[in-house]
Amino acid sequence: MIRAFLESTAKTIQHRAVLVPSALATIGAALAFRALGTNDGLWRLSPPAMALLVIVLGVRFWIGLSVSATALTIMRAGYRWRPALWLSPMVAIEAGLVSLVLFVPVAAALVFLIVPGVLLALRWSQTVMLIVDRRAAWLDAADASADLTHGRRTAIFALWMIAGAALGIAGWLGQTADDIAAALGAPVMLVTAIDWLLQIGADAFSLVLVAAVYHALDVEGT
Q: Secondary structure of 203-222 in the HEC alphabet?
């Protein structure tokens, strides 16, 4: 199953309908965060800047969901071209609110009892995609996610570990590349470009992988 997840991700991520919106969102969010001064600390932001930050995060979340939804349509079309699918903002709001509600018990369990927290996260891992796919609504999607992931949570957890390790290695390689470029006196723009390329790849990979996991579970469940 893990191999199927990764192969599906690799076949889908190369489509422009997926990669271009994801890349634009990554770059746009990075520029917005820099303009708002988030690197200096969130506590230093003024109320208007904080409000703008919330808007930026909301738009970024909406685009991310749309990218995952587009990836899902491409997978269901046999990896053939499909246009970018832009979700209704109301769907993104629903998914965001449900995510916030479920985050509280997961975070609490992770802080005080790590294993139950991980189990809850696995149990509810497909909630957002079920909402995006309009297979379930609001908190009913959490119960649907529990049914969809039943008996396959070990594979999902293993995939999380592999993906996390891959992203960690990519981050380390990026930092190493930055250090080498700086030591060689490379232009700042080159170092920034390397960082952005790695971030674009990591973001697109994560968004497509989310869709790949859901697609594989959905296919096996039918």
A: HHHHHHHHHHHHHHHHHHHC
